[in-house]
Amino acid sequence: MSNESCENPGEVVLDDPDAAIVLRGPLADLQRAAHRLEENGIDCAIVRPQDVAGCCATTLYLAVARDDAPAAYAVFDQDWRKGLSPEQIEALEAASGIVLDPDAPETTCPACLTTFATGPKSCPDCGLSLG
After folding, report:
1. φ and ψ at 118, to 5 degrees?
2. What's phi and psi for 73, nearest 5 deg?
3. Mean pLDDT in each 10-residue stretch from start to end of the chain (131 residues)?
4. What are the helix and strand counts (H, E) for the chain?
5. From edge to edge, which strands make up the β-sheet containing 19-25?
6. How large is the C-alpha radius of gyration of the chain?
7. Alpha carbon of 68 to those of 9, 20, 21, 64, 74: distances in Å?
8. Full-prediction pTM beyond 0.90?
9. DSSP state, residue 31
């Protein structure tokens, strides 16, 4: 499935029920991700939708066999954790589970974990837009 150029439009892969899209982004980022997957024995392809004209479309996808998707995500998760302290990982994992409830008396910012009374459209500490 390896294909690091955007010569192949990839319409077959995008419609293939046995393929899974694991990333979307610019070509250089997907090439780096594809290299990491291939280093870990995961076959992949960089594809673009059929209806996009030109070779270097802004929306490109990294696809793997559906059965390889969990392993691909594990590679990305491992790379994400490199260089982070256990405290940083714990804070980020806690933040990923935050649900903003506009009816709750207070809310916690998913970016900086500041807790404040519900109402503002942005975090009073870091400025993250919550609306």
Report:
1. -65, 145
2. -65, -35
3. 42 73 92 96 88 61 94 92 88 83 88 87 88 74
4. 4, 5
5. 19-25, 60-65, 44-47
6. 19
7. 21, 8, 11, 6, 10
8. no
9. H
